[in-house]
Amino acid sequence: MWPWGHAATGYLCYSLGTRLFGRTPTGSATLAVLFGTQLPDLLDKPLSWVFELFPQGYSVGHSVFVAVPVGLFVLLAAYYSSHTETAVGFVVGYWSHLFGDLVFGLVTNNPLTSERLLWPIATLPSYTSDLSAIERILAYGISFLHFFADEGLVPALVLLAIYFGPVVVATLVWLYDGHPGPGTIRRMLAHSWTTAKGILTP
Predict the structure, then answer these.
(1) C-alpha span between 17 and 130 (Å, rounded)
(2) Strand ranges for 42-142 from DSSP E
(3) Tens of pLDDT along 171-202?
(4) Is the dihedral of CA 97, 102, 103, 107 positive or negative?
(5) Where are the domains of the chain?
(6) Closest among 155, 196, 182, 69 to 60, alpha carbons compared
(7) pTM summary value
(8) Which residues contact 102 (CB under 8 A, 6 or more apart)?
């Protein structure tokens, strides 16, 4: 699953969950959701593609043996602080990434779907091509474009709907929720600027 798909899945899960509990999404929790949805790839892709510590880009960050205890620890720590909803957002985003990879792998009939989530019990085989991080990103992007171009018009439109439909739905839901997140970023930047001026001003 691509980054935008993870972001859309995570936000939809978070928004639905908050609505079920009679609440509305907050800005800080929304940002935590987005960060959580990208965290596994932000960890595992550099560890593999840049530092070559793992044979493929699925290891520590994607492991249920890491994600579950980390998520539970974050929730427990937040229970004793005033950031519970932000922690919930992060955990929803993080765990939805693993769920999305699992479902997407099953739908696409990937034979290594379960192994992606079972490090260190299971380790994926090495890539068949030796590429740098930049080359691998470009290769995936080109392959993604060719995937649509080779399918014909109608199948390509169907695939576009599958790949980008959740993003459109998540965007509409986000707008309906009051587009939480940007206001929080502005307040954080304003606070940082005020703090910096206070330190620098004699």
Answers:
(1) 42
(2) none
(3) 999 999 999 999 999 999 998 888 887 777 76
(4) positive
(5) 3-200
(6) 69
(7) 0.90
(8) 113, 114, 116, 117
